[in-house]
């Protein structure tokens, strides 16, 4: 077995490997080699240093790792100038019977990251996810359990997480009544990809925003036609003084009804692993858990 730095001539093999890796992960569709290649070339994070390595055994690729070392924040482009640059592993995968390959890849990436900037290393943060990996907010999927196990064996600890919940064939139904004098506004929002716009549902009380729900087409996260059947709830929030009245449920159902009208049949929503209030709301509303995802962190002393 050998560890090789990624080269563009390996792209078709690496794309096939990535698609094998994510085949069982919810909301991951086969990705075209061109889309993956653009990311591996740093197209989405041009200011940051990035490297990718693959593990080859004979003629077969059996693993890959993609590491990122952030550039210093630049307030001119809207970054937080007070946040220290981070080191991160964007993606890691190896065949289940090739633990040695995963270990070698991880050690190679860690050595490079420590040369760039000694300090903590994050693994599989949602903010570093590929745009076509899962839906927004997802970290490392539990369906890639062997990868999570290897990371934890090497001193990484779960430091963040997001629960993913689906509602296939969600129904169109009347929103719950709310004992509040409010007006609903509905407007289309732009999306980066896909031919269906995002939708914003906003509740106004005396002209002021009381809560809102933002829903996006699954086409934002994949070019696969099946992704268009999914609506992803990107945001649901109600101001503190209006909580407990049912306004969140009302906005969520209004949003789902709007997405049903433009052709979406299934819905997905996520919440932080420790947001128990939202977790209760969504699971009682009709969503069911399909994935637990985690971001992991290794501190220098671990």
Named at the architecture level, the CATH assignment of the largest domain is 3-Layer(aba) Sandwich
Can you count the beta strands?
Answer: 13
How far is it from the N-terminal to the C-terminal residue, by CA?
A: 28 Å
CATH topology tier name of the largest domain: Aminopeptidase
Low-pLDDT segments, ≥5 res: none
Helical amount: 10-25%
User: What string gives the helices and strands in order?
Assistant: EHHEEEHEEHEEEEEHEHE
Largest sheet: 13 strands, mixed
* Share of β-strand residues: 25-35%
Radius of gyration: 21 Å
Secondary structure class reads: alpha+beta
What is the CATH top level name of the largest domain?
Alpha Beta
Number of separate domains: 2
Provide a quick synopsis of the model.
With 302 residues, this protein is α+β, with helices and mostly antiparallel strands. It has helices spanning 11-21, 33-40, 99-116, 145-153, 247-261, 276-285; strands at residues 2-5, 49-57, 60-69, 87-94, 121-123, 140-141, 157-167, 183-189, 198-205, 208-217, 230-238, 266-272, 288-298. The longest helix is centred in the middle third of the chain and has 18 residues, at 99-116.
């Amino acid at each position: 077995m050998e560890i090789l730095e990624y080269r563009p001539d390996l792209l078709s093999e690496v794309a096939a490997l990535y698609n094998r890796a994510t085949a069982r992960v919810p909301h991951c569709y086969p990705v075209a080699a061109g889309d993956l290649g653009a990311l591996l070339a740093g197209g989405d994070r041009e200011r940051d240093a990035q490297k990718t390595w693959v593990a080859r055994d004979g003629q077969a690729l059996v693993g890959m790792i993609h590491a990122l070392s952030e550039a210093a924040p630049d307030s001119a482009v809207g970054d937080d100038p007070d946040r220290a640059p981070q080191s991160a592993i964007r993606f890691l995968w190896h065949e289940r019977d090739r633990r040695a390959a995963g270990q070698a890849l991880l050690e190679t990436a860690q050595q490079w990251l420590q040369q760039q900037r000694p300090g903590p290393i994050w693994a599989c943060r949602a903010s570093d996810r590929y745009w076509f990996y899962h839906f927004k907010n997802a970290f490392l999927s539990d369906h890639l359990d062997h990868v999570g196990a290897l990371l934890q064996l090497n001193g990484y600890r779960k430091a963040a997480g997001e629960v993913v919940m689906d509602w296939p064939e969600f129904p169109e139904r009347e929103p719950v009544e709310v004992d509040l004098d409010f007006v609903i506004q509905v407007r289309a929002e732009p999306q980066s990809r896909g031919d269906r716009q995002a939708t914003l549902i906003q509740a106004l009380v005396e002209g002021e925003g009381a809560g809102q729900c933002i829903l996006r087409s699954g086409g934002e996260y994949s070019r696969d036609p099946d992704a268009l059947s999914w609506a992803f709830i990107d945001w649901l929030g109600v101001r503190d003084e209006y909580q407990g009245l049912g306004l969140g449920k009302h906005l969520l159902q209004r949003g789902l009804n709007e997405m049903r009208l433009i052709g979406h049949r299934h819905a997905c929503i996520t919440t932080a692993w420790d947001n128990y209030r939202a977790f209760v709301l969504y699971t009682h509303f009709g969503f069911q858990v399909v994935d637990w995802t985690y971001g992991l962190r290794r501190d220098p002393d671990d």
